[in-house]
Amino acid sequence: AGLLGRGGAYFPAGAKWDSVRKGGLARYMVVNAEEGEPGVFKDRHLMEGVPHRMIEGMAIAAYASGVGRAYVYINAEADLSAERVEGAVGQAYESGLLGDNVLGSEFSLDVSLLRGAGGYVCGEETVLLNTMEGRRREPRFKPPYPTDAGLWARPTVVNNAETLANVPFILAGGAEAFAKIGSDRATGTKLVSLSGSVRRPGVAEVPMGTSLREIIEGVGGGPESGHTLTGVAVGGPSSGVFPPSMLDTAIAPGMLHESGVMLGAGGMIALDERTPVVEVVRKLAAYN
Hints:
This protein is an alpha/beta fold and 288 residues long. The protein contains eleven helices and nine strands.
């Protein structure tokens, strides 16, 4: 299917699972739903609306990775997300989809919820793992990577919530059906968090390869009435701002422009003349 991670790094999901499956006896899975990045809120809506889809994807990925213990790491402020996921996990246990001998098989999976330590940096996978171990909120040196030495120095799969939510569709519809969606650079769809000066802000699911123009104008309805689009902040504080002249740029993994603008987790903030672009860039630089 060519499924890539949807948290911002776009690493091949299957490669992570395969690497951990070949690791030691004690393996872990961590669902990264920390989502502390400004302007990004797609995982919250996913967990609030279809938590079972993420849990099913997590269970499938855990089975493929040989993992028997999983954690869902949810942002400290996402109370409704935590409530919905906790309820869905409980229902999955009651239905025999989690716990000992899932569906009468030899596969067992225990799942726990953890609340994030707070802060944008916690979304980085090694910082996340440090906070789970009670350590400081700072990134680890790589290598080793989490797939080799992650949680408590054991092989660990860290997948974004959106990544795992794609897995049930792939198994139900087949890899080819998923691969037909998107572009040559990336298959499937992407959830984008659209906010700022647009008539229809919110979360949208679009095929990979969709242009910024289609997202801002087609999905978002264009700038608010009486105002003019002056730019689009794409990819959060670690990325940058596109001028209106570059709205035909297609979303894709990695860099969207040599200046350093990247898709990241899919946050898009439309700007108009009421918000000076220079001030936005200054705030982004200060945030980092």
